[in-house]
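Colleagues,

For the teaching module next term, I've prepared a clean inverse folding example: a structure given as C-alpha cells, and then the sequence designed for it. I'd like students to try predicting residues themselves before seeing the answer, so please don't circulate the second half yet.
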C-alpha cells in the first residue's frame, strides 16, 4: 500500500468516524429523518451539479443504475437513517462501535450465504470482533443504554453489510472525477427520496434553530457526506475493496475519541478494551482475506 493510499484511508476513517458525534448534535434539535433527507438532497444536488459541469453524463448501464439504487437505499436511507433515529437515545460512542462491526458482518454473511472460506486467522478475528462488540453492548445496556436505540444501530450496520455484499461498482465504466461525483450524487438523492417519504408518514416535525445545529448540518453535508464518500470510492478503485476495508478498524478508536472531545461523552474501561478487540478482529479478518 503506497503512501497516498495510506493517507486517503486515514483521512476517510477520521471523516467517517466524525459523522456520529455531529449526527447526535443534529438530532438534538431537529427531526432525524427529515434532517437527513434534507442533507442528502443538498449534498446530492451539489454533487450532480458539479459533475455535470465537469462533463459527466447520465449514460449509466442498467447494472449501474441498480447499484446506485441499492447503495442509496441501503447505506444512505437504511444505515444512516437508523443511526440518526437511534442517536436520539444512545451515545455517539456506542453507535460508532456498533457501526464498526460492519466488516465483521460482511465476513459472517459471506461465510453463511456464499460459502466463502475464512482462514483460521479470519475466523479468530470474527469471533473476537463480535465478542468485543458484545462486551461493550452488554456493559452499556446494563448501565442504562436504550435497548431500542442499540437495536436500531445493529440493524443499520446489518443494512450496510448487505449493501457491501450486493453492491457492484457503479463507477467502473466511467473514469474521472466528474462521473464518480455523479454516481455519489445519485446515490444521495435515492436515499433522500426514501427518507423524505418515511419522514412524512411517521415523523412529527421538530426544529429548534441553533448555531450547533447549523454548524453540524453544514459539516455533515461537505465532510462525511461528500468528501468521505468520494475518498472511499477513490480508495477502493486504487487498492481494492478488501484492503480499503481495513481502515474501518480505526473507526472505534477515532469515533469514541471524537465523541469524548466534542460531546464530553465518558469512556469506560470496557469501552476501550472492547473497541481494541473489535479493531483487532476487523484487522485480522481483512488481512486473512487478502489475496496471496
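(Answer key — instructors only)
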Amino acid at each position: 500500500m503506497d503512501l497516498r493510499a495510506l493517507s486517503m484511508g486515514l483521512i476517510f476513517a477520521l471523516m467517517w468516524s466524525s459523522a456520529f458525534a455531529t449526527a447526535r448534535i443534529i438530532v438534538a434539535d431537529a427531526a432525524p429523518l427529515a434532517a437527513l433527507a434534507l442533507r442528502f438532497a443538498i449534498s446530492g444536488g451539489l454533487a450532480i451539479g458539479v459533475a455535470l459541469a465537469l462533463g459527466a453524463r447520465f449514460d449509466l448501464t442498467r447494472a449501474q443504475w441498480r447499484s446506485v439504487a441499492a447503495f442509496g437505499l441501503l447505506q444512505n436511507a437504511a444505515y444512516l437513517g437508523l443511526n440518526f433515529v437511534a442517536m436520539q437515545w444512545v451515545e455517539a460512542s456506542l453507535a460508532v462501535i456498533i457501526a464498526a462491526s460492519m466488516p465483521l458482518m460482511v465476513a459472517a454473511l459471506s461465510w453463511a450465504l456464499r460459502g466463502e472460506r475464512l482462514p483460521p486467522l479470519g475466523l479468530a478475528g470474527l469471533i473476537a470482533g463480535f465478542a468485543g462488540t458484545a462486551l461493550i453492548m452488554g456493559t452499556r445496556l446494563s448501565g442504562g443504554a436504550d435497548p431500542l436505540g442499540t437495536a436500531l444501530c445493529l440493524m443499520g450496520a446489518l443494512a450496510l453489510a448487505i449493501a457491501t455484499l450486493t453492491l457492484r461498482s457503479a463507477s467502473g465504466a466511467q473514469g474521472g472525477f466528474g462521473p464518480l461525483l455523479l454516481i455519489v450524487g445519485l446515490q444521495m438523492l435515492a436515499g433522500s427520496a426514501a427518507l423524505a417519504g418515511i419522514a412524512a408518514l411517521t415523523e412529527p416535525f421538530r426544529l429548534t434553530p441553533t448555531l450547533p445545529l447549523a454548524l453540524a448540518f453544514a459539516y455533515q453535508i461537505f465532510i462525511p457526506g461528500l468528501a468521505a464518500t468520494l475518498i472511499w470510492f477513490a480508495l477502493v478503485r486504487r487498492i481494492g475493496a478488501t484492503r480499503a476495508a481495513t481502515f474501518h478498524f480505526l473507526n472505534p478508536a477515532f469515533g469514541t475519541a471524537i465523541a469524548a472531545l466534542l460531546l464530553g461523552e465518558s469512556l469506560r474501561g470496557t469501552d476501550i478494551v472492547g473497541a481494541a478487540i473489535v479493531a483487532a478482529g476487523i484487522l485480522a479478518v481483512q488481512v486473512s482475506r487478502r489475496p496471496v
